[in-house]
Write a structure and sequence with these properties.
The complex is a heteropentamer, with one copy of chain A (310 residues), two copies of chain B (290 residues) and two copies of chain C (285 residues).
Chain A lengths: L2 E6 L6 H8 L2 H8 L5 E6 L3 H9 L5 E5 H11 L5 E6 L6 E4 L16 E3 L6 H14 L11 E3 L2 H10 L6 E3 L4 H8 L4 E5 H5 L6 E6 H6 L1 H20 L1 H11 L6 H9 L13 H9 L25
Parallel strand pairs in A: 1-2, 1-3, 6-7, 6-8
Antiparallel strand pairs in A: 3-10, 4-10, 5-8, 5-9
Chain B lengths: L12 E2 L11 E3 L2 H8 L1 H22 L8 H13 L2 H33 L1 H14 L4 H12 L3 H25 L3 H9 L4 H12 L1 H27 L7 H10 L3 H32 L6
Chain C lengths: L22 E11 L3 E13 L4 E5 L6 H9 L6 E6 L2 E2 L7 E4 L12 H11 L5 H14 L15 H14 L4 E5 L7 H18 L2 E6 L2 H7 L2 E5 L6 E6 L11 H14 L6 H12 L1
Classes of the chains: A alpha/beta (310), B mainly alpha (290), C alpha/beta (285).
The complex binds adenosine-5'-triphosphate (2 copies) and magnesium ion (2 copies).
One magnesium ion (MG) binds next to helix 1 of chain E.
């Protein structure tokens, strides 16, 4: 009680946490409860490192994609019982290509290479599989897998922007997809994750162990309240939020681009998860997770702030 | 002079020379001496002890998503091998690894041969090594992408990077330590250039070269696994590194450890079957190393 | 000058009335083992070295002289028999028995000549740094290497290296000194000077010397007792007295006769005939 | 015998010994000979040539998101240094690096000393090295997290892993190659155990140890940079690896290369200021290496 | 037997009427450089070696004998003066001048004794593998190491190693043979046998021999001409004939006188007095 260690990864999708950190919202919410909360913010890279840190007890709250949450929920069920704490907002993922011949995913040919953070297991790869399953039938879900290639986001973005390498498509995330679209005139969106998932959906989430939540109810509550407050703040002050991002991350990102992402109508800052069950059930269907989720509440803690999720 | 300090005068004696009858001058070592010398037994016991330690530590931690027990790992290893999944991955990795290793060894040989024969070659080797050796493989990724594209060539490129420099460093140090007399003997018989390197410097520097080869081999593995996981895999057709990475992402920690255990097993196998044998039939037999 | 005739030969030496020997070598066989085979270097060699002896091991190349010396120094364990020092079985090397090796690479290349001579004095904690330095310079002077005190071994000639090793051993003033062909690389004058220094030091300190040489003359001049070894694998051929000769007996008749006799014993008489004849002739001239 | 084959009989002659007057027996080398021997000049020229090559290649590729030019990189480096950002990051990394390196060196020393003095120590070293050396650092991450948590201790742990094995391998090979006579000389003076190791084996094996130290140093950097990137930053305090990672994430390739260039520069500096100096005042001076 | 008296001394040798020498050493100074200092090993040494000569370099330890030999072999370049072989300046080593080094580590440890002897024959492409092997075994027989043909050098004693090096050099049957104290580690009989073999081979092939020794007797016995060098740094002290002596002259009066004379010249008369006296005495006895 009174201490919380949060791990985030790199990127604009963690803006909510940056605001909470900069504005000391967790501390503020804690004081409302008469609790002095010490917050430790750590940056890690990669879902695997985040999971390791959480399971080893080095951190209390982990931030990662929906995919890793579902995996760790599935594996720790009946043991640590890791579940989602909150969403960090809805962001669309674009599959961007600089090959003018590729208009839809059906146009991908043997010569094209799609960069992903991790082949077959990343959220991007799953969404591509969902799209393939929908368009070509459930059995053909892995139709594009052989075109995909594991490349870290920045290298893939550099390749798509600059051209001249085999990689001509990238299923990325903000801000890379936006940079690609902005900096290469040939670059265009081939697939939008919202289309596949049937509307806006949570991209990044936070999760924790059941034990932490039970042992530190007040701290936990203060943390979730702080998140909600941060979401409100960003909606109200996008410009200030952008500045906070640049400051906290010591980032050199182009401010105008950042602002355009934050203000984009596709992006929504909310704490309640949205539209995650589809992906979860797809993962179960293809055998990535063993437990079948019946409702989003299976893998999210039931809290007031996340009420009304889906 | 006092009597005590003077050694006593003894009588002389002579023994007629007699042939040796009762001992063979040279006799082969007894069977068990050989076995013990090879030390499979000792190392086997050591391995068993380490496995026991692992099992105990893992049971005590009781967190099999982070540290599975030895037995769980062995089960996963067995299943992986039985299903043919692991052998396939190992074969893929091995292919790339051996190519990269061979290329690295060849390049190191060329560089050090140059370095030993010309002054500018020496400066070049020293400068390149101290520049590039500390660079992590990930730093080379964009360049690899640009020059070699995706797939095995880029992998080979980063493996060469991790084999070349340490091996060149060690080989070069070995060459420089070759005794002057030996070098002169070789030159005296008209050896020079490549023939001097091959017939004098390489065997004389073999202990250093072999440890360079061992280090290179180990780092080739390290790099391969790290690199496969970054950009080695196309559509699931990856090697052992990819297998480890994928299972780690999916939190199948027992499979991750099975993959790593396989790396360890291959390491032990190569060390004992290849490098120990090389040492035994060369430097140890020649009395250059105990 | 001491030129009395050698005593008549006996087939086996008797121990009656002798004091307890300092170094006892009893039926010692030495072997070298490699992965595939075992080579016997000496076969059941026995001899006793008494306190104050200048005991010489003499024999043809490869007969196991160096091996015996190393065994006495504690580097090689006998496969048969026993080596005892002061009644106790030798179990390992130690600074009580200082060795001059036959090889040129016995000087640590990372120490200057001076430091090399100081090294055993400091390592065995026998002297402090200042005293060790003074002693080192004294002995370097004696072997004629004072001007090279600060040189590193790799800048020395073969004979100079060997002289450093000799200085290093003598500076230790050990109770037992083991020397393996120490003067082989030296020219006549330097060799003689070294022999004299050794003699002087022995007269002063009365240490016990075990000395390997391949030169019959040197054996007679340096030693008071000589063990003759047969060719590979070394067996005892004879044990002779030579206390009657010293550095100045080189030309005497008795000396020449002793030389011939040893020559005859060491090498099969028939095979060695021309050489022995030559020696006969030179002795008679 | 034919007359031609008989060498001619010449008259004898004798020269009275005369003192040398006109030459100093030992004279110091001339100034420029020293400078040329140090070779700063030669290496400087080589570096300039490499920089030129880089500039040309980058301009030809004309793809500064993947490969910025030398000048762009230098500008970024200059700005980074001037703003104090890079020095700060380097300081952070250096602290961890040196601790890990020192720990690795100490451990390697202990392991090899054990290995040289006992048979079981030798088996242990051989087995552990061939087992753990090929394991990539990421494999140790879960264990590091479990035992040391997030932060510098885990970093130090993985650095130790990358320094220890290659250094131990090289040191051990060096120890085993120490000439028997030298070893016997040391034991003859009553040296044994640690004193034998320190006073005989370490200096005699120094060429091998120094190249082990060089390899260890380089791989410590590689590992640190790769590990910092996984471990990221706690409370905004990252090292050089984090700097590189972050700028890579933001597609500031010139800054990425500036970070890497700094690694290269530090590598050159350490090689020439530390390792070359060590070699010059030890193995080269002692004639153990040319 | 050849025992005519040495010719009267001249201060400088004359070249009048002599054929062109095979090896010309003219005013050669040799230096060793290290990072900090330069050491002069020989100072303006001149001598001529004619075809068929058995030319001996004789001098005290450290006077630069080995350095001169290495310079003639092409390993060290003179800082002053010129070394010419057949009129051409020596620019590097080659298999036309086979060297036996003073050091024991001249045998590649990775080759067996047999392979070591075959090595230069194969490396210089002089013989095929079969012939080389036969030649190697022949010479190993001569140096008494045939039973050790398959042993590795590290299993040999010091003298055995040196004998392998001798066999290796003789097997090459070179035109010019350079030997640096090759017999220093050998016992009297083996040494004599080696000297005889060398003599026989020379009589058969009439190669040119440059021979370094520190033993005056060996110089007189082996050589036909002797260059005396003064102590460090080596300068020419004298050049003498010794073709009148051979392996069987060891005891003759002329031989003894020549020994004394060289001794006197080599070492400052006063300092060497006791040693010389001893030799006088032994010669007179
Ligand atoms: N390290 C070794 N390994 C195997 N055999 C060896 C080793 N050292 C010596 N021998 C063998 O032991 C025998 C005796 O060798 P040792 O060195 O004692 O001879 P030595 O009498 O000193 O000869 P030398 O006068 O030539 O030095 C030789 O036949 C040699 O082959
Ligand atoms: N590698 C070297 N570096 C520096 N100086 C050397 C080197 N080798 C020899 N010297 C010096 O050159 C001089 C002559 O050495 P050299 O080996 O030629 O003597 P040598 O006549 O062969 O002596 P010895 O009979 O003792 O072998 C010596 O004073 C020695 O100090
Ligand atoms: Mg010997
Ligand atoms: Mg010499």
């Amino acid at each position: 009680e009174g201490k919380i260690r949060v791990a985030e990864q790199f990127g604009v999708v963690y803006l909510l946490l940056n605001v909470a950190q900069e504005q000391k919202l967790v501390e503020k919410q804690g004081r409302k409860d008469g609790l002095d909360i010490q917050v430790e913010w750590t940056k890690l890279s990669g879902g695997a490192a985040v999971n390791d840190a959480l399971l080893s007890g080095a951190i209390d709250i982990a931030g990662a994609g929906v995919g890793p949450l579902l995996t760790i929920w599935d594996r720790t069920r009946g043991r640590q019982n890791v579940k989602g704490v909150a969403s960090l907002g809805n962001y669309p993922y674009y599959l961007v290509s600089n090959n003018p011949n590729v208009k839809t995913i059906a146009d991908f040919s043997e010569k094209d290479r799609i960069a992903l953070p991790a082949v077959t297991v990343s959220v991007q790869a799953r969404i591509l599989q969902m799209a393939a399953a929908r368009q070509f039938g459930e059995k053909a879900f892995n139709r594009f897998d052989k075109l995909t290639q594991a490349v870290p986001h920045p290298d893939a973005a550099a390749a798509v922007i600059a051209g001249g390498t085999e990689i001509n498509a990238h299923f990325g995330n903000p801000p890379y997809q936006d940079q690609e679209l902005a900096q290469n005139k040939q670059a265009h969106i081939v697939l939008n994750s919202y289309e596949v998932q049937g509307g806006p959906s949570s991209a990044t989430v936070l999760y924790a162990t059941e034990k932490f939540r039970n042992d530190n109810p007040k701290t936990y509550r203060a943390f979730t309240a702080a998140l909600a407050e941060a979401a409100q703040f960003i909606k109200a002050n996008p410009e200030a939020a952008a500045d906070i991002y640049l400051k906290i991350n010591k980032s050199n990102l182009d401010r105008a681009l950042l602002l355009s992402i934050i203000k984009s109508p596709q992006v929504e800052f909310k704490v309640a998860p949205q539209n995650t069950l589809g992906l979860a059930q797809f993962l179960h269907r293809v055998g990535a997770i063993r437990n079948k989720p019946e409702s989003w509440k299976d893998y999210f803690f039931d809290d007031p702030v996340t009420a009304g999720g889906s | 002079m006092s009597a005590i300090l003077e050694p006593p005068v003894r009588s002389e004696y002579e023994r007629p020379p007699e042939p040796l009858r009762d001992v063979a001058l040279e006799r082969p070592l007894k069977g068990w001496e050989r076995v013990w010398q090879h030390g499979w037994l000792r190392k086997g016991l050591l391995l068993a002890a380490l496995a026991l330690l692992w099992e105990a530590a893992a049971r005590w931690q009781n967190n099999d998503l982070l540290l599975p027990t030895f037995l769980q790992t062995m089960r996963a290893l067995w299943e992986g091998v039985a299903s043919g999944e692991l052998p396939g991955n190992v074969a893929t990795s091995m292919g790339v690894l051996l190519q990269g290793y061979a290329a690295g060894v060849a390049l190191a040989f060329v560089l050090t041969s140059l370095a030993i024969s010309t002054r500018i070659g020496r400066d070049l080797l020293e400068t390149l090594t101290s520049m590039f050796n500390p660079l992590p493989a990930i730093a080379l990724l964009p360049l690899a992408l640009l020059w070699f594209g995706l797939g095995r060539f880029s992998l080979i490129f980063v493996i060469v990077h991790s084999v070349l420099w340490p091996l060149a460093l060690n080989t070069y140090a070995g060459f420089r330590g070759v005794p002057e007399t030996l070098r002169m003997a070789g030159r005296n018989y008209g050896l020079g250039g490549l023939r001097l390197v091959l017939q004098i410097l390489v065997p004389a520097a073999l202990p250093a070269i072999v440890s360079g080869l061992k280090i290179g081999w180990a780092f080739a593995w390290r790099t391969l696994i790290a690199a496969e996981l970054v950009f080695g895999a196309t559509s699931g057709k990856g090697g052992l590194g990819w297998y480890i990475f994928q299972n780690r992402n999916e939190l199948y920690t027992d499979k991750v450890f099975a993959g790593l255990a396989l790396v360890i097993l291959i390491g032990l196998l190569v060390e004992n079957a290849v490098f120990r044998t090389i040492e035994r039939v060369t430097v140890q037999r020649w009395g250059m190393q105990r | 000058m001491n030129t009395r005739k050698p005593q008549s030969l006996q087939v086996v030496g008797s121990h009656a009335g002798l004091p307890e020997p300092l170094l006892q070598v009893q039926d010692v066989s030495l072997e070298y083992r490699s992965a595939a085979r075992t080579v016997r270097a000496t076969h059941r060699v026995s001899f006793d070295v008494h306190r104050g002896d200048r005991f010489v091991l003499l024999g043809p190349s490869g007969c196991g002289k160096s091996s015996l010396l190393k065994a006495a120094a504690g580097f090689i364990a006998p496969v048969e028999g026993r080596i005892a020092l002061n009644g106790e079985t030798v179990s390992g090397p130690g600074p009580d028995r200082v060795v001059v090796f036959q090889e040129f690479d016995q000087l640590p290349p990372w120490k200057t000549v001076r430091e090399n001579v100081m090294f055993p004095l400091l390592a065995s904690r026998r002297l402090g740094r200042r005293d060790a330095e003074a002693r080192a310079l004294h002995w370097l002077e004696k072997v004629g290497l004072a001007p090279f005190a600060d040189a590193y071994p790799h800048t020395l000639s073969g004979g100079m290296k060997q002289r450093v090793a000799i200085a290093r051993a003598l500076a230790m003033q050990p109770e037992v000194l083991l020397m393996d062909e120490p003067f082989a690389a030296l020219d006549a004058l330097t060799r003689r000077k070294m022999q004299e220094e050794l003699q002087l030091l022995w007269e002063e300190l009365r240490f016990t010397l075990l000395f390997v040489t391949h030169s019959i003359e040197e054996a007679l001049v340096v030693g008071n007792r000589i063990l003759l070894l047969s060719p590979h694998p070394g067996q005892v051929r004879a044990e002779l007295n030579s206390h009657q000769f010293n550095l100045h007996s080189a030309g005497s008749d008795a000396f020449q006769r002793a030389t011939q006799r040893i020559h005859g014993m060491l090498f099969d008489e028939a095979a060695a005939a021309p050489a022995v004849q030559a020696l006969h002739r030179s002795a008679a001239s």
